[in-house]
Known about the structure:
Blueprint: E1 5-9, H1 17-31, E2 36-40, H2 51-61, E3 66-72, H3 80-88, H4 91-94, E4 99-105, H5 113-125, E5 129-130, E6 135-137, H6 140-143, H7 153-167
Parallel strand pairs: 1-2, 1-3, 3-4, 4-5, 4-6
Amino acid sequence: MNSNYTIVSGTNRTGSNTLxxxxxxxxxxxxxxxxxxxxxxxNLDVSTRNQQIRELEARxxxxxxxxxxxxxxxNGSIPGVLKSLFDSSxxxxxxxxxxxxxxxxxxxxxxNLRGMEHLTGILHYLRMVVHHNKLPxxxxxVLLHLDGTIxxxxxxxxxxxxxxDFISF
Length: 169
């Protein structure tokens, strides 16, 4: 079965480290010969089920079979805008039975471990299958080059292993 991949940058903050990490995931997948769409929540109105959400569903969410969620830590959890994306979408068609990979991003020590567990619970409620290898990326602000790419080799190895596992999942 062919898989369609979408990487979700789970915040609407402009210029976020989350988006930089999501772009790095996209580049690594491309180097592995896999095309992945990138969904940023910047400028996306998720407050209600509107035309913008319906178009996003038809174009991206419904065709996707494997989602990669890159989520920053917001107050020990995930950003409300990410939760609102789920709430405003057609849950059955967008999420049910699909696969998910989680990566947490924070400037602190825990790499959004609590947020990834919270997100896991939400995704299970949405009947998604969550991959076991959840990667916390801590002190992300120290791990990036000025151009936004990851300079830390152990982090790059961990991402590559995580993606290899998810590709065969």
